[in-house]
Amino acid sequence: MKERVLTHLKGAGADWISGGRLSIKMGMTRTAVWKQICRLRDEGYVIDSSRGKGYVLRRVSDSLLPAEIQSHLKTDFMGREIIYRPEVESTNSLAKSLAVRGAPAGTIVVAESQAAGKGRKGRVWFSPPGAGIYVSMILRPHFSLAEATKFTLLTGVALAETLLCLLPGRVEIKWPNDVLVDGRKIAGILIEISTEIDRIDYMVVGVGVNVNLKRQDFPPELKKIATSLRAETGKYFSRAAILADFLAAFEKYYGVFQDFGFAPVLARWKRLSNILEKEVQVSLLGSTIAGRVSGIDRDGALLIRGRRGCVQRILSGDMTLLRKPDVRRRRKSAAGNK
Ligand code: BTN
């Protein structure tokens, strides 16, 4: 109800909308409309009221509150159920416990901040209040565990497309799951899966996006390697609108994957990625592989050609792009070998 009242208030822009008109549009009494206005005010919306004129929305809540997300939402099932917390340890951890208790597919968990946001490989995801999108989506796909890597790539495509609309031509995906702007990380993905034999029971797709952090907000160790939409543009963004766009993009590619298989998603991923033919190093459990990226196979695995020409297939790892070798230094060391 309050989402619909909010939509009408937003639609009126800076104009007043009378209580009578609102109650006709909503099919409810004026008192019921008033109750929804009070609930919206409690959530941080500034709504003026006047006896003769009605209501006007003065300031939208800059939050990830369900009403704010829903007012932008264009999906069929993603985000139709929203669990919101001002603060949480990790949205992924909360989503997992809700999934165990039977939360339906499409449920999302969002938070304004995370005390212990999880990154890949046990790292921490910097999650200051109100500055980023911290969301975890619960899914129950009818796929085998072997298909799981594909979801990382699919999520990367949806995320990169969403951010490309805001930073045209500047967003790239680094295998398997980092979204970069000019080499700096703007978003990351952490997927956690619970299986039964070889069947996925549930999957939690966690996404962190740096939105309104200023460059100086990042801790020293992240300043050179991370960025945000605000740091790149100097502008302030609506996190709820971006989240809604991302959910729509995710739902679209999820549907493509279900109906037509992974090939069209992978084709899009390849166009958005920056790694083909690049020199890279990949850390696996206890070892490192270096070489040139010769491709991504149909399962989303990275193919790396080593110095001796043999190609290795890597399904999961941590990849670093190596800088092109410095020609002068290479000549010098070659001379030293003589
Ligand atoms: C990475 O690139 O290392 C993955 C980062 C994933 C961070 C998000 S923020 C929302 C969700 N909840 C978590 O605890 N982590 C993910």
Report on this structure.
- With 338 residues, this protein is an alpha+beta fold.
- Helix content is 34%, strand content 28%.
- The protein is built from eleven helices and 14 strands.
- The longest helix is centred in the last third of the chain and has 22 residues, at 239-260.
- The chain is elongated, with a radius of gyration of 23 Å.
- It starts with a helix and ends with a helix.
- The chain binds biotin.
Q: What's this model, at a glance?
A:
With 338 residues, this protein is α+β, with helices and mostly antiparallel strands.
> Strands of the largest sheet, in order across it?
3-4-5-9-8-7-6
The helical percent reads: 25-40%
Bound molecules: biotin
Q: What class do helices, strands and sheet pairing give? A: alpha+beta
Q: Note the total helix count.
A: 11
Task: Tell me the fraction of residues in β-strands, as a range.
Answer: 25-35%
**Would you tell me the overall average pLDDT?**
90
Gyration radius (Cα, Å) is: 23 Å
- Sheet with the most strands, sense and barrel status: 7 strands, mixed
Low-confidence stretches: 325-338
Topology, element by element:
Elements: H1 2-12, H2 19-26, H3 30-42, E1 46-50, E2 54-59, H4 66-70, E3 82-88, H5 91-100, E4 108-114, E5 132-139, H6 148-164, E6 171-174, E7 178-181, E8 184-196, E9 199-210, H7 220-223, H8 229-233, H9 239-260, H10 263-272, E10 279-284, E11 287-296, E12 302-305, E13 311-314, E14 318-321, H11 327-337
Parallel strand pairs: 3-4
Antiparallel strand pairs: 1-2, 4-5, 5-9, 6-7, 7-8, 8-9, 10-11, 10-14, 11-12, 12-13
The structure holds biotin (BTN).
